[in-house]
Design brief:
heterodimer, A: mainly beta, Immunoglobulin-like, 6-stranded mixed sheet, 5-stranded antiparallel sheet, globular, B: mainly beta, 4-stranded antiparallel sheet, 0% helix
């Protein structure tokens, strides 16, 4: 089964609003990453948060991690139409070594102008 | 910027054909990966490689093989294409994890949309 599960599956907001997407996972992780995918394209890495971190910022992005609840959230502030994309969380298992990541099914974000 | 190039954006093949999907990266990354992406199933790992001539099975290796003869190139092979292999195939590469991060970000190509008829 998928390690990471995003919620909601789809989100539609107006330009200027904030968008929050959530990711839950089942087993202990080393770190969690968020990726973005524009329609018909590959994924682009957005941000990585380590298991010993609770919050991280990058521009308009804010990621939180709660290891006790096995969940993470991605907040996009002051959204723009260009933020329309699918967003995926990816996790690694603490028990496995190397660079193997498991992706969730993604949240489709639509930002209406 | 890292560039991961997949040789074809779209491919149409017939059932039973042998299919080669090629991926090249220009950042001297040790790790390379093949995923397939299907609606409702997300990304699933097919095979990955930590070094030249090394390969490891992912979650869904059945019906696929891979080749890594050079560090920059990772090929996915469908020995006998079937209709259930119709999908978007995504190649990615990364540096190996260091002791602190365990994982490096993946750099993806733009994908190959394969249709098997």
């Amino acid at each position: 089964s998928q390690q990471g599960e995003e919620d909601p599956q789809a989100l539609s907001i107006q330009e200027g609003e904030n968008a929050t997407m959530n990711c839950s996972y089942k087993t202990s992780i080393n770190n969690l990453q968020w990726y973005r995918q524009n329609s018909g394209r590959g994924l682009v890495h957005l941000i990585l948060i380590r298991s010993n971190e609770r919050e991280k910022h990058s521009g308009r992005l804010r990621v939180t991690l709660d290891t006790s609840k096995k969940s993470s959230s991605l907040l996009i502030t002051a959204s723009r139409a260009a933020d329309t994309a699918s967003y995926f969380c990816a996790t690694d298992f603490e028990e496995t070594s190397g660079s193997r990541l498991t992706f969730g099914e993604g949240t489709q974000l639509t930002v209406n102008p | 910027d890292v560039k991961v190039t997949q040789s074809s954006r779209y491919l149409v093949k017939r059932t039973g054909e042998k299919v080669f999907l090629e991926c090249v990266q220009d950042m001297d990354h040790e790790n390379m990966f093949w995923y397939r992406q299907d609606p409702g199933l997300g990304l699933r790992l097919i095979y990955f490689s930590y070094d030249v001539k090394m390969k490891e099975k992912g979650d869904i290796p059945e019906g696929y093989s891979v080749s890594r003869e050079k560090k920059e190139r990772f090929s996915l092979i469908l020995e006998s294409a079937s209709t259930n292999q119709t999908s978007m195939y995504l190649c990615a590469s990364s540096f190996p994890p260091d002791r602190s991060s365990y994982n490096s970000p993946l750099h993806f190509g733009n994908g190959t949309r394969l249709t098997v008829t």
